[in-house]
């Protein structure tokens, strides 16, 4: 009888432990859904302004808290591999090798393309020449002398803009002379606004949506028109030129979601790719992946006469 009593107590204890564990798991999952809870998103700092706008509206509409961490492109990608973050926003897709690493971890990243950005070249307002040929920029980065370029200024040695331009130039390291880097796009804009002859390389969103403290520096720089490697025409990085494929330095933007469950990563990606998010993209000066629809109310003649 005593053994039966002990067995009953053990079974009751085991059931209680299992119920408690299930409740803990349930509580943990309940903290975050696609539209509520909190999460951290790492973002390529070149894209920070537009993502800050998206997060502000998303948090206002839903019971969600998103902490943005703006880092260089390489740091943002590494945050995924080191599991510091499960959501990242980049100006490039994951490579085949990177996807293979996630596959080995039994993770299938959800990738959402949400806009097209552009790399812009800027010069001091006093510079009378507002045109630049991409082949000259590439030659300068390859260490060849180009009389029309005094120097190139990038935001960060690990940035997406430098990686992008290195790829175009077919180089792995920048030349020892003539190419400089700071820590942010704001620093590049400020430096170029105060120094003649330098060409800054920045994300176009930093020019279309500067913070108030940066407006005076943005006003003192000129966005250069660029001639691509094919053709003889020069184009500025406008929405229309990007949409028509005329501007030669356009790049798609991606949300990489490695959460592995239906959390805020899924909800935020759907929001950014949805109607409201795409309207924010359109207003920012970037090109949305789909043009938001516009609704018109047509007033008939009879209704008009009644007014």
Automatic annotation (TrEMBL):
The keyword Signal applies. It comes from the Bacteria. Keywords: Signal. Residues 1-21 form the signal peptide. Residues 37-275 form the PBP domain. PANTHER family: PERIPLASMIC PHOSPHATE BINDING COMPONENT OF PHOSPHATE ABC TRANSPORTER (PTHR30570), PHOSPHATE-BINDING PROTEIN PSTS (PTHR30570:SF1). This is Substrate-binding domain-containing protein. It comes from Flavobacterium algoritolerans.
